[in-house]
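[Discussion] Sanity-checking designs against the backbone

I'm trying to build intuition for which residues belong where. Below is a structure token string of 163 positions. I'd appreciate it if someone posts a full sequence so I can compare it with mine line by line.
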């Protein structure tokens, strides 16, 4: 796959934090694989690593919350990307609330939406969760701020092994 590196290394996607809640459990992680995948109806897909706790909770969740962060919110990215929920209660460190059927929304996020899981897609070491948005919001004080991108997060050591 070395040839694909010439393509992939040029990408610099927005990063987001995805949270999941199911069966009295909650989890969240930093995600770099996410995109709108349909215009009508509006659909968005997030790809979760099968190696992390968020994936295990998301498998039985009916809804997921997706959060955009600004570059100034690196601390949130470090918490959700550099810590594992297997050892750390990430939600004890951040302001959050329940929205739309119990989904966990991070109050400090620049923008967020809660989506109903309408499909799961096998993708190798990640699984795609196709979401239909049902609730959303944004902080006006972050409008126009530059979003956190992969290049801003490469120095965050993952809270779990990548494989």
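Best answer:
Here's mine. Compare freely.
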């Amino acid at each position: 796959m070395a040839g694909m590196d010439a393509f992939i290394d040029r990408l610099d996607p927005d990063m987001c934090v995805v949270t999941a809640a199911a069966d009295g459990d909650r989890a969240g992680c930093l995600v770099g694989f996410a995109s709108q995948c349909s215009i009508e109806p509006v659909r968005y897909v997030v790809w979760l690593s099968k190696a992390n706790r968020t994936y295990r909770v998301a498998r039985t969740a009916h809804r997921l919350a997706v959060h955009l962060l600004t570059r100034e919110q690196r601390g949130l990215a470090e918490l959700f990307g550099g810590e594992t929920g297997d050892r750390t209660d990430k939600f004890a460190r951040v302001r959050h609330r329940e929205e739309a059927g119990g989904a966990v929304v991070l109050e400090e996020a620049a923008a967020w939406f809660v989506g109903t899981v309408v499909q799961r897609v096998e993708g190798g070491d990640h699984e795609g969760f196709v979401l239909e948005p049902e609730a959303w919001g944004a902080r006006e004080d972050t409008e126009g701020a530059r979003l956190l991108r992969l290049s801003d997060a490469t120095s965050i050591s993952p809270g779990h092994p990548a494989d």
